[in-house]
Write a structure and sequence with these properties.
Number of strands: 8
InterPro entries: Mce/MlaD, MlaD_Phospholipid_Transporter
Strand order of the largest sheet: 7-1-4-3-2-6-5-8
Helix content: 10-25%
Oligomer: single chain
Protein name: Outer membrane lipid asymmetry maintenance protein MlaD
Radius of gyration: 22 Å
Structural class: alpha/beta
Pfam families: MlaD
């Protein structure tokens, strides 16, 4: 059985496109890892985010969540954020877990503070707001706004 030149050309094109996607994916994974600095933020709840989740400021991606851990002393979730070194953050900046909409994905949003001193490698963002549960909001709304414990 002999292959036609068109089949060989199509197969070669498929291999080239596949190799291009692999190269592009590897480039995207390594992009932004040079020159980053890590800071931490402690949240009551990190529902909806995980490693690789975007960190944004004013809607622009400035980093990613590089790890999540539980602090056994405070029982709070500690997120490690890998931020672009070209974006210095004032020490009084705040971090909020936001969503892209009702059914959208979650991301960490940074609101810069006004201090003149910037967070350094290993610094911590103290002013945080965790994820808001849509189900909890609905229960509160249906219950007439009462948040009394049973």
């Amino acid at each position: 059985m002999r292959e036609s030149p068109a089949e060989v050309a199509t197969g070669a094109l498929v291999l080239l496109v596949g190799a291009g996607f692999i190269w592009w994916g590897a480039d995207r994974v390594s992009a932004g890892t040079d020159g980053d600095y890590a800071v931490t933020a402690s949240f009551r709840s990190v529902e909806g985010i995980g490693p690789g989740t975007d960190v944004r400021m004013a809607g622009v991606k400035i980093g990613r969540v590089s790890g999540l851990d539980l602090d056994p002393q405070s029982f709070r979730a500690v997120a490690e954020l890998s931020l672009d070194s070209g974006v210095p953050l004032p020490t009084d900046s705040s971090a909020v877990i936001s969503s892209d909409g009702l059914l959208g994905g979650a991301f960490v949003e940074i609101f810069p503070g006004g201090e003149l001193e910037n967070l350094a490698e290993g610094g911590q963002i103290y002013d945080t707001q965790g994820a808001v549960s849509l189900l909890q909001l609905l229960i509160t709304y249906i219950g007439g706004g009462s948040e009394e414990a049973p």
